[in-house]
Amino acid sequence: MLFKTKKDIIGIDVGSSSVKLVQLKEVKGAYHLVNIGMASLPPEAIVDNTIMDSHAVGEAIRNLVESHHIKTKNVATSISGHSVIIRKIQLPIMTEEEMEASIQWEAEQYIPFDIAEVNLDFQILGPDEKDPSQMHVILAAAKNDFVNEYVTVFKEVGLNPLVMDIDCFAMENAFEATYGFEEGEIVALVNLGASAINVNVLRGRESLFNRDIQAGGQAFSDEIQKRFGLNYEDAEKVRLGAEVEDVDPAVVAEIITEVAESLAQEVQRSLDFFSATSADEKVQKLFITGGVSKTAQIRDLIEERMGVPVEVFDPFRHMVANEKDFDPEYLQAVGPFFTVASGLAMRRLGDK
Ligand SMILES: Nc1ncnc2c1ncn2[C@@H]1O[C@H](COP(=O)(O)OP(=O)(O)OP(=O)(O)O)[C@@H](O)[C@H]1O
Ligand SMILES: [Mg+2]
Hints:
A hairpin with a 4-residue loop joins strand 11 (about 185-190) and strand 12 (about 195-205). The longest helix has 29 residues, at about 250-275. By secondary structure, the chain is of the alpha/beta class. Helix 4 crosses helix 10 (about 340-345). The strands form 4 sheets. A 5-stranded mixed beta sheet has the order 3-2-1-6-10. The protein is built from 10 helices and 15 strands. It folds into 2 domains: about 1-80 and about 145-180 and about 315-350, 2-Layer Sandwich (Nucleotidyltransferase, domain 5), CATH 3.30.420; about 180-310, ATPase, nucleotide binding domain (Nucleotidyltransferase, domain 5). Magnesium ion binds near residues 13 and 193.
């Protein structure tokens, strides 16, 4: 085609604590930031990755899109959690088309859901190093009902959810654009969200291990709420440093350290499991992102446990942003919240 049209698409990450929106423009191979926005959700709107209050979620999305005067209706969004299964499998070498034709059948033995009721997707990674007649494939499956809940929320507010991604892969996509893959280097990307931790271990561009841990930043507020008998809003304020009557800041600090340690331990456990199940592959570097990566001690705690360098993953690092529209300090502060949404905003139509 002579004039290849690249349809505009916005990235919208529906997290359990807030909805994040990113709009980018690609100019000569560089990403320019056009819009970012975040809208918090009531604590019961999404529970266990399931949309409980679709009206609240829809309104948050609508407000974001309207307040930023966004014209495009096309959205790339993502899901995660236990209704989503990611498996790395090995199959005889075949083409993309052959794979397309046989995926249903191949997937049956790897996916613990009824194949008739899932959305299937795959990515061919390449031939096996030891046996070139075989290839590695990433298989992703999500229950139709689950995907439809997300699709419906977008449609109800007049948007067009064209790309349905998985949090882990969106994070990987943002990583590729921001930090780039080093051939052979094993890095772990860890998204520390409010209710889940997504772990993705990569060797170069090859994904070796994926895991969702059902624990996250909500544990800080839950614990503060429990110990001081506060409501959710006050607990969240206390957690972020606000002073509230009868709440001893020293005790709050203690709770934060305890919870940060338990989250760091969860990350370590998951990566220990990866090491135990993969011959001589060891994570050489870790990138943490998501709202909880902003907790003061968490980077150090993970670094101590893992004994490898840990860096906070900022998706805006190499993006071009007009200083009149975006305060550089603000961008740096909020970067980790927008990693998944940025990875989504980089998706193009036709992308999987
Ligand atoms: N300045 C801060 N320091 C530490 N933690 C913070 C800070 N601001 C927000 N958080 C925590 O970050 C979490 C929100 O992070 P994030 O937006 O990545 O989660 P989410 O995408 O909504 O959730 P999930 O992906 O788990 O569904 C909350 O638990 C919140 O308490
Ligand atoms: Mg999230």
